[in-house]
Amino acid sequence: MPELPEVETIARKLRPALVGKRILSVSLRWKRTLAEPSPAAFKKRLIGQRIQEVSRRAKFLRLQLSRDTLLVHLRMSGDLTVVRGSYRTAKHDRLILGLTGEMRLVFNDARKFGRVWLTDDPDAILAALGPEPLAEDFTPRDLYARLHQRRRLLKPLLLDQTFLAGLGNIYTDEALHLARLHPLLPSDAVTPDQAAVLWQAIREVLMEGIRRNGASIDWVYRGGDFQNHFRVYGRTGEPCPVCGTPIERMVVGQRGTHFCPKCQLPLPIEPL
């Protein structure tokens, strides 16, 4: 599933192509792709609206239109691409928007888990999400307070989108290793210094992921190379880049979790 860096990369690539374009036609090829409103209302409201901005909130792509907001969650295999000129519909195309300038915005989703919302109140859909980890107003003190409010195991808590928005399996494993914190450490056992180190590690791996256009692994996302720089994710049995101990894998909350058994002791440690 694409995480914050992959979705941010897609938004940045779509933005220059889409901003200013008007929607001329709507082809909804699989009705369940649409979360809301009804297909008839969706088509009626979309046509004629202009795309004013393309951005991201958590793992959602957000297209601000002249009247409404179009939200897209790619889930496991969704992809949004811009096609110029003639286009032959592909097998897994679920939604195609015809745009001015002889362009199309194509939502392709092989596994059919992706969803699209057209709404005049995006906050109603996004309100439950936690803070953005790269936001200027999200501080180490905020993270420490939230960790102690929840009192859960660290790895599942960081994956909870209501706790912190945008992290998934890859970047959580990478951040915990960089911070030298064990995935099973209780969140309320994290010290203020450790929270500050974790805050920095989360931001560091996310920014590096964005710099490298995300990771091309686990789904159909194209073009990123962060997978070539993983510290622990997917490297079971390979040496830890810090101490050389073989990376181990366990299942935490039904998610494969990669960690160094030497660097990431489930005990309080001194900050880096």
What does this structure look like?
This protein is an alpha+beta fold. The chain folds into two domains: 4-126, N-terminal domain of MutM-like DNA repair proteins; 140-259, Helicase, Ruva Protein, domain 3 (Orthogonal Bundle). The chain has seven helices and eleven strands. A five-stranded mixed beta sheet has the order 2-9-5-4-3, with helices on one face. Helix 1 (4-18) crosses helix 7 (192-211) and helix 4 packs across helix 7 (192-211).
- The percent range for strand residues is 15-25%
The largest beta-sheet arranges its strands as 2-9-5-4-3
Q: Please summarize the sheet with the most strands.
A: 5 strands, mixed
Give the class-level CATH name of the largest domain: Alpha Beta
Overall average pLDDT: 94
Alpha-beta classification: alpha+beta
The number of helical segments is 7
- Report Rg: 20 Å
Number of domains: 2
Low-confidence stretches: none
Q: Compute the number of strand runs.
A: 11
Order of helices and strands: HEEHEEEEEEEHHHHHEE
The CATH topology of the largest domain? N-terminal domain of MutM-like DNA repair proteins
Percent of residues in helices: 25-40%
N/C terminus separation: 30 Å
By CATH, the superfamily of the largest domain comes out as MutM-like, N-terminal
**Given the C-alpha coordinates, what overall shape results?**
elongated
Instruction: Please tell me the CATH architecture of the largest domain by its name.
Output: Alpha-Beta Barrel
